Amino acid sequence: MRDFADIWSYLAQTPLIWLTATLVAYLIGDYLAQRAGRAPLANPVLIAVVLLALVLWASDTSYAQYFEGAQFVHFLLGPATVALAIPLWHQRAALRRALLPVLAGLVAGSVTAVLVALALGHWLGLGPALLATLAPKGTTAPVALGISESLGGSPTLTAVLVILTGIIGAVVVTPLMNALRIRDWRARGLAAGVAAHGLGTARAFQVNPQAGAFAGIGMALNAMLTAFVAPWALRLFL
Amino acid sequence: MIHALTLILLCQLAGETMTRLFGWPVPGPVLGMAMLFVLMLARPRLAGQVVPAGEGILRHLSLLFVPAGVGIVGHLGALGTYGAGLAVALVLSTVLGLAVGALAFVAVARLVEGGKPDA
Lengths: 238, 119
Prior knowledge:
Chain A folds into two domains: 72 residues, no CATH class; 155 residues, no CATH class. The model of chain A has no long low-confidence stretch (mean pLDDT 90). In chain A, α8 crosses α12 and α12 crosses α13. Chain A is built from 13 helices and no strands. Chain B is mainly α. Chain B is built from five helices and no strands. In chain B, α1 packs across α2, α1 packs across α3 and α2 crosses α3. Classes of the chains: A mainly alpha, B mainly alpha. At the A-B interface, α2, α3, α4, α5 and α6 of A face α1, α2, α3, α4 and α5 of B.
């Protein structure tokens, strides 16, 4: 029988092991999130990232080595962004009926979130690279990574900020909307999709189907709008 | 399935090519999304073919952020130094974005719908 260290040194050079590890870590995260009743804080991505970070640290593996395998999953972010046209298409009738309120909520919510984040970040002393990393954090991950990269930010840190934003949005949206006495499910959902992307959308679907549908609209439209708002807003603070 | 995937990849490829060709600030896949949406509106039969494959990808959307998220191991230093500032910026921008977005929707809906939201 061969030494385990030999087998490990062979496997560590192939993409297979880290591709498999990524999927296994996600399945564990998804299982734990399900056990926790899909509570917003028990996010499968967050759990998977922590697990993988621990495994990389324990096995003394570099991120570059890990990415050799994980890049096959990472690649799908592009096609997934294109596929966001599908929820938008499903909601085309609702979108047409409420076009003006949707556009108002989209622009107001998106611009507010980006400007407040950048103004606070600037005031708290974050440098240009960190501001570029922060600017697209409200939009869905595949789009946010692309914008962050093109602005000179750090896509990996943006990915983490995007997930944290989604968790914050999913946790605060219901109490916040109740406090503001907003009862229109379309408004509540749209705001959740615009400010907290997929995690806000998932939360909105849990609360009310109409809110979920409008959250999907907000997420898809904000993916396009943020590509214009983030570079424009960033220039104001550089 | 293969037709739908090919169409999605073609939209992405066209998007990437156009944003680079014209130097637009939009990521290629976002332009690809807009193109696919227009195609689906123009050709309903095409839409029927794209939906199952596209929804297959979207069902596991959160899995796709994991590799990028693991990159956090290289940024623990930055998070330690700027963690508090980033946390404040994230929480306040999300809360204000939610509030302003929802209030703007309600205000405009009241204007155009005369105060009675349909359904």
